[in-house]
């Protein structure tokens, strides 16, 4: 597969063509998303506006109804026949008592029938131990109801009194003596079922619901069972929330609220946001269909552009690069008679002519130079090169200019050392510096997984002349064949040792890729200094071993053993003789 360096992808014609297409299409997609969100917001605002108007009208109507009931309540408190019963009941005859009762009951029934919200009307008269009801006429004194309403009436700061699961209106008449219990109490019990029906009327959508909440007592009444479950789960969150749209449980709801300071009541409605979005569902489907079609068009355009333009052009660029590297026997085949076919044909003809000239005048010299170049290039690991450019690309994306500058300087030093051909042997100081640069570059890839302990080079060893690239390839093998594959934290350690007769460099790691038998076999191959090996790892070690042995004698070279870190330990031994430890 044809590849360009990562940092040059952004400069290709292919990327520019795709970017131009995206520049045209993306605004349309963004406009569609904006229109959908705007429509949803507008619909939500309209629904809330209508709900707010309904809630306010509902509370106003409920307040007028309560005011009417209060007028009826206080009117009956002033009724002469009722007051006569309270004050003279013991002195009244049975006929007079029946007459008063027959007069009073129709009045209570009339009050009850004056509003659909009334369930019953009670008059509690403690002095005669009687409770008169519009539904059940005269009964024994209902002390439980009396105590409830008397406590609420004595509190005096609520128009609607909560008893059990509904609301009550209470009015009392007292005697002349201060501190006495009231002569009578008129209690109007509101019908909870009728209140629920009224709440159902303001629940416009099937999924919506409504409920009333009494602010002082926390009493709440919902329009139906589903609303009642929702209310129990969400009432606290709704009362203290400032936002109109809330996440309640696993759903998202549009909440509207109105408050009546006269009744000290709040009424809420809720509506799932999905119900608001439902009218926009067709638009939503078409928007996604448009987006999917657009992405498909982008993919088709990108693939066709890649095949018709980018791939042929990339093939030509790669062929030029191979030609620059000294490969003149390449030919480009193209089955179509288009512009690229013409370019490929001219390129092939140019290579034929160029190779003919080289064969005539410079073949011998070029072959020698190519051999030297291949020797140097064989020392460069292409995976390391690719990874280096990947690191550089990642740093560029993060915008870390300091790290980019540091990394490029290290990479430049690395390749400068590898590609220099002025001397076969270099001071150990330079070889060590090159190896340090290599480990610093690798730290950018494996800083969290691999730790490096690089010892200091003694001053006495700095000037020792050694063959180029004897430390870094061993470190590279440790990374590639052991440390990169570890699940746990890797450790690489480089140390230097010097005595009167020998200088040694020890590279060791904590990997577990080799058994003791494998290490023994490697030592035997190094002893035979084989011309070839079964793996690149062994070939590299043999190459280093042979060069050191040729330079310093057969007693010098590589010694492999098991490291105290549990991995492979490679010792580079250099037998010192007079003249090779200093420049």
From TrEMBL:
Annotated localization? Cell membrane
Mind telling me which SUPFAM superfamilies this protein's record contains?
ATPase domain of HSP90 chaperone/DNA topoisomerase II/histidine kinase, HAMP domain-like
- Which is an annotated Pfam family here? His_kinase
User: Recorded E.C. number(s)?
Assistant: 2.7.13.3
User: What is the membrane topology noted in the UniProt record heading this document?
Assistant: Multi-pass membrane protein
| Record flagged with keyword Amino-acid biosynthesis | no
Q: What residues does the HAMP domain cover? A: 307-359
* InterPro entries registered for this protein in UniProt: Bact_2-comp_sensor_kinase, HAMP_dom, HATPase_C_sf, HATPase_dom, Sig_transdc_His_kin_internal
Q: Name one GO molecular function term.
A: protein histidine kinase activity
Q: Which residues form a coiled coil?
A: none
Transferase among keywords = yes
Residue spans crossing the bilayer: 13-36, 283-303
What keywords are annotated for this sequence in UniProt? Cell membrane, Kinase, Membrane, Phosphoprotein, Transferase, Transmembrane, Transmembrane helix
Protein name, entry field: Two-component system sensor histidine kinase YesM
Specify the species. Paenibacillus lactis
Phylogenetic placement of the source organism: Bacteria, Bacillati, Bacillota, Bacilli, Bacillales
């Amino acid at each position: 597969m044809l590849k360009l360096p990562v940092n040059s992808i952004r400069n290709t014609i292919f990327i520019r063509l795709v970017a131009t297409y995206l520049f045209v299409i993306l605004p349309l997609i963004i406009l569609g998303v904006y229109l959908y969100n705007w429509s949803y917001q507008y619909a939500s605002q309209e629904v809330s506006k209508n709900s707010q108007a309904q809630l306010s009208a509902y509370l106003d109507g409920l307040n007028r109804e309560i005011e009417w009931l209060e007028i009826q309540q206080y009117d009956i408190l002033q009724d002469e026949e009722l007051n006569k019963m309270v004050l003279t009941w013991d002195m009244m005859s049975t006929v007079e008592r029946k007459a008063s009762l027959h007069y009073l009951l129709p009045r209570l029934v009339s009050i009850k029938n004056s509003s659909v919200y009334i369930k019953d009307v009670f008059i509690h008269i403690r002095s005669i131990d009687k409770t008169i009801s519009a539904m059940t006429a005269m009964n024994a004194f209902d002390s439980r109801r009396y105590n409830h309403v008397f406590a609420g009436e004595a509190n005096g700061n609520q128009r609607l009194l909560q008893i059990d699961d509904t609301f009550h209106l209470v009015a009392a008449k007292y005697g002349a003596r201060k501190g006495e219990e009231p002569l009578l109490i008129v209690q109007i019990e509101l019908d909870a079922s009728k209140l629920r029906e009224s709440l159902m009327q303001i629940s416009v959508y099937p999924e919506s619901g409504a409920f009333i909440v009494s602010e002082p007592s926390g009493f709440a009444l919902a329009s139906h069972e589903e609303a009642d479950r929702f209310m129990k789960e969400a009432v606290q969150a709704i009362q203290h929330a400032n936002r109109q749209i809330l996440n309640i449980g696993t759903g998202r709801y549009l909440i509207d609220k109105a408050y009546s300071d006269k009744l000290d009541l709040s009424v809420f409605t809720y509506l799932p946001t999905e119900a608001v979005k439902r009218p926009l569902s067709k638009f939503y489907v078409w928007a996604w269909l448009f987006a999917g079609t657009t992405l498909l068009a982008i993919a088709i355009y990108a693939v066709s552009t890649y095949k018709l333009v980018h791939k042929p052009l990339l093939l030509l660029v790669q062929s030029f690069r191979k030609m620059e590297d000294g490969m003149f026997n390449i030919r480009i085949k193209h089955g179509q008679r288009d512009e690229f076919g013409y370019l490929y044909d001219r390129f092939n003809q140019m290579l034929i002519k160029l190779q003919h000239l080289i064969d005539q005048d410079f073949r011998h010299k070029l072959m020698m130079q190519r051999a030297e170049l291949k020797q140097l290039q064989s020392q460069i690991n292409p995976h390391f090169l690719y990874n280096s450019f990947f690191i550089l690309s990642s740093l560029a994306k993060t915008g870390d200019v300091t790290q980019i500058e540091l990394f490029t300087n290290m990479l430049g030093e690395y390749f400068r050392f590898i590609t220099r051909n002025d001397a076969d042997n270099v001071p150990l100081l330079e070889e060590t510096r090159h190896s340090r640069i290599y480990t610093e570059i690798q730290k950018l890839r494996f800083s969290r997984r691999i730790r490096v302990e690089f010892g200091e080079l003694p001053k006495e060893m700095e000037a020792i002349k050694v063959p180029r690239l004897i430390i870094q390839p061993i470190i590279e093998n440790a990374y590639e064949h052991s440390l990169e594959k570890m699940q746990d934290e890797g450790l690489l350690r480089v140390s230097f040792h010097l005595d009167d007769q020998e200088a040694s460099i020890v590279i060791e790691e904590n990997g577990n890729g080799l058994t003791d038998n494998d290490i023994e076999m490697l030592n035997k191959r190094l002893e035979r200094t084989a011309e070839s090996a079964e793996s690149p790892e062994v070939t590299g070690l043999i190459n280093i071993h042979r060069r050191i042995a040729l330079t310093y004698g057969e007693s010098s070279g590589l010694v492999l053993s098991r490291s105290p870190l549990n991995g492979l330990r490679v010792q580079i031994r250099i037998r010192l003789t007079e003249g090779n430890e200093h420049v």
